[in-house]
Design brief:
With 399 residues, the chain is an alpha/beta fold. It is 34% helix and 18% strand.
């Protein structure tokens, strides 16, 4: 990702779904006015989901998702269909492409699944060069031809309308600040930190502070104590990387708000309350229990990695139990969580809100407690109550 690019997690994700040869790739190319997807008369040309971050007027920054056909056949075909359905978990707006006015059983099942997930839906009847009066009266249905650029403007305008309706109006931390309030960000620079840059949650939090008229001060944990002494005005809040929670808690005076990037992003993506309740499950773990530790990105693991090294060590110390750990990363997240006693997820900075809510809902539906790195670490260090103090509705859960 370039320095000036909008993070994919903050872009509207538009998924194109349908049967093989319905014209999904042609529709994507017509919407974007680019040759993003390969177009062919051969069935099953798209064998894996294709994701492309781009600007799409009049919407703005989006991620376009082209998917394999939902009627694919054979063992490999079944896997491709599964991949297509998995893409629903990160789709903000779904476009189902039908061939003319024909709706197959596969199309019907897909449309039903989309509606069950409450995903805004547009149905585009492709290869419909001649529009009938009856066709134009179906709400949510659009007719045209991707190859002949018929009906594409109307389709794009409908997607833009739905995107506007879905647009969230939230802050990461800016709603807690008044103009010129100081926010100190604690950013460890160790072996697991990326070379030459800040990670995405840190970048986004700094931007949010600036947009809110606040003052952002960024320091390493080793310089935090001296920085607080040198500030002429105490900061309104200190935001720390989760792995430095214990040390930072000892340094920051009790009259200064303290939280973590992970906690802020749990709130930003709508799952803070669930994660706080889920952290309590760590107290009841016993020998033989299994925990899933899941990350939304696929970075290279290094010495001292928080997910695979530090977090397991803290869990072992906190529980005093012989628990087993499974790890997943990227788009891999098991549908069946029934074998787990708890799930600990990363902050999800690389996943959009819909996918994070899907993962939390999977755990909730199966009765499996789920929390995130920062909240779990704060709980295991005995400072969770303090770290959610800025959020009155969440604070009440722990009282």
């Amino acid at each position: 990702m370039g320095l000036n690019e909008i993070p994919s997690a903050n872009r509207v994700h538009i998924g194109i779904f349908g049967r093989r040869n319905a014209g999904k790739s042609s529709v994507m190319n017509a919407l974007t006015n680019q040759s993003i997807a390969i177009v062919s008369d051969v069935l099953g040309t798209t064998t894996d989901p294709v994701l492309k971050a781009m600007e799409l007027l009049p919407i703005g920054p989006v991620v376009m998702i082209d998917t394999p056909g939902i009627d694919d056949e054979g063992e490999l075909g079944a896997l491709r269909v599964k991949k297509s359905y998995q893409m629903l978990n990160k789709t903000d707006i779904a476009v189902v492409v039908l061939e003319c006015e024909t709706e197959s059983p596969e199309d019907t099942a897909l449309i039903e699944k989309i509606r069950q997930k409450n995903i805004p839906l547009v149905i585009f009847h492709n290869k419909s060069d001649v529009l009938t009066e009856n066709s134009q009266t179906k709400e949510g249905h659009f007719y045209g031809s991707a190859l002949k650029n018929i009906g594409i403007t109307e389709l794009k305008n409908e997607i833009a309308r739905l995107a506007k309706a879905e647009e969230p109006d939230r802050k990461i931390v800016g709603d807690l600040l008044s103009p010129l309030d100081i926010a100190v960000l604690v950013v460890p620079i160790d072996a697991s930190a990326p070379k030459g840059r800040l990670i995405l949650p840190q970048q986004q939090t700094i931007r949010d502070i600036l947009e809110s008229g606040g003052i952002s001060v960024v320091v390493k944990e080793t310089e935090l104590a001296e920085t607080l002494k040198k500030l002429g005005t105490p900061p309104k809040i200190v935001i720390t990387d989760s792995q430095a929670f214990g040390m930072v808690n000892k340094i920051v005076p009790k009259d200064i708000l303290l939280t973590s990037f992970s906690i802020l992003f749990a709130r930003y993506k709508g799952n803070l309350e669930t994660a706080v309740r889920g952290a309590k499950a760590l107290d009841g773990l016993k020998d033989g229990d299994k925990i899933l530790i899941s990350e939304g990105c696929t970075h290279h693991r290094q010495c001292g990695d928080i997910g695979t090294v530090k977090l397991p060590a803290w869990i072992k110390k906190h529980t005093c139990a012989d628990v087993s750990l499974d790890f997943t990363s990227g788009t891999e997240f098991p549908d069946d969580l029934s074998g787990y006693s708890a799930v600990i997820h990363c902050g999800g900075c690389m996943l959009n809100e819909r996918e994070m809510k899907y993962r939390y809902k999977c755990a909730e539906d199966q009765g499996v407690p789920i929390t995130n790195y920062g909240i779990a670490i704060a709980h295991m260090h005995g400072i969770l109550k303090r770290s959610v103090e800025p959020f009155e509705d969440i604070r009440k859960i722990l009282e």
